[in-house]
């Protein structure tokens, strides 16, 4: 016995730690495989069996970690997309604090670049939102959470207009998503990224100004 811990206890602890690490690695591999499949094949056509096969595990193992495809897509969002976009709107909060139209235009250009970075996953996100009521709620919660990271912006609105302030941010998010889908993915809007950023700035810089008290 060493400091009150038997060799058996130590072995048991190591085995538990090893199992926990194996579970963590399997979960990580499932998320990575699902991300790859969703970006290359979309959401609807990918099956749970496809994700499990890509990792070399069984369907039963998949269900030890996730309840289904919406759950694994939620994990992808929570680990990558959601923290990234929240950071992006924290940045917007600081930009609006500056009151600078030039800074806002630069943010808008960065927003377009952000969508470019994540564009391969966006079709899967849209498909899941349309097909899965469970994931529709996840998407709704994600959009509604963005005003929460813009605390300085919200603080400049009167208490009786807080809902309006939040709605303006949510509408900005929605328009940027739809613009990018039509522009970069469907090709139905023919404009350069810089031109788009300029026009979007014309629309949204005044729309996000806080009212005079």
Give short descriptive properties of this protein.
213 residues; mainly alpha; Arc Repressor Mutant, subunit A; 2 domains; 10 helices; 0% strand
Query: How many separate helices?
Result: 10
Quaternary arrangement of the chains shown?
Answer: single chain
User: What is the string of helix and strand elements?
Assistant: HHHHHHHHHH
Overall tally of structural domains? 2
Structural class of the secondary structure composition?
A: mainly alpha
Number of strands: 0
User: What is the helical fraction, as a range of percent?
Assistant: over 70%
Mean pLDDT: 90
Structural Rg: 22 Å
**Main sheet summary:** none
Through-space gap between termini:
72 Å
Strand content: under 5%
Shape: globular
Q: List low-pLDDT spans.
A: none
Q: Can you offer a commentary on this structure?
A:
There is one protein chain. The chain has 213 residues and is mainly alpha-helical. It is built from 10 helices and no strands. The chain has 2 domains: 66 residues, Homeodomain-like (Arc Repressor Mutant, subunit A, Orthogonal Bundle), CATH 1.10.10; 144 residues. α1 crosses α4, α5 packs across α10 and α6 crosses α7. The chain is globular and about 70 Å long. 20% of the residues are buried. InterPro entries: Homeodomain-like_sf, HTH-type_TetR-like_transc_reg, HTH_TetR, Tet_transcr_reg_TetR-rel_C_sf. This is TetR/AcrR family transcriptional regulator. Keywords: DNA-binding, Transcription, Transcription regulation.
């Amino acid at each position: 016995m060493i400091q009150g811990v038997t060799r058996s206890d130590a072995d048991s602890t190591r085995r538990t730690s090893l199992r926990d690490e194996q579970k963590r690695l399997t979960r990580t591999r499932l998320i990575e495989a699902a991300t790859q499949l969703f970006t290359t094949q979309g959401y609807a056509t990918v099956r749970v069996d496809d994700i499990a096969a890509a990792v070399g595990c069984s369907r039963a193992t998949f269900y030890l970690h996730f309840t289904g495809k919406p759950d694994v897509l939620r994990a992808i969002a929570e680990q990558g997309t959601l923290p990234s976009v929240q950071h992006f709107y924290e940045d917007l909060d600081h930009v609006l604090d500056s009151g600078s139209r030039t800074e806002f235009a630069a943010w808008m250009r960065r927003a377009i670049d952000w969508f470019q970075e994540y564009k391969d996953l966006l079709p899967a996100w849209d498909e899941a939102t349309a097909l899965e009521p469970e994931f529709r709620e996840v998407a709704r919660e994600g959009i509604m959470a963005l005003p929460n990271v813009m605390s300085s912006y919200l603080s400049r609105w009167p208490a009786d207009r807080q809902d309006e302030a939040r709605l303006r941010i949510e509408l900005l998010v929605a328009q940027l998503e739809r613009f990018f889908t039509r522009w970069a993915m469907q090709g139905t809007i023919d404009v350069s990224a810089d031109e788009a950023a300029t026009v979007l700035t014309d629309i949204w810089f005044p729309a996000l100004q806080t009212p005079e008290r």
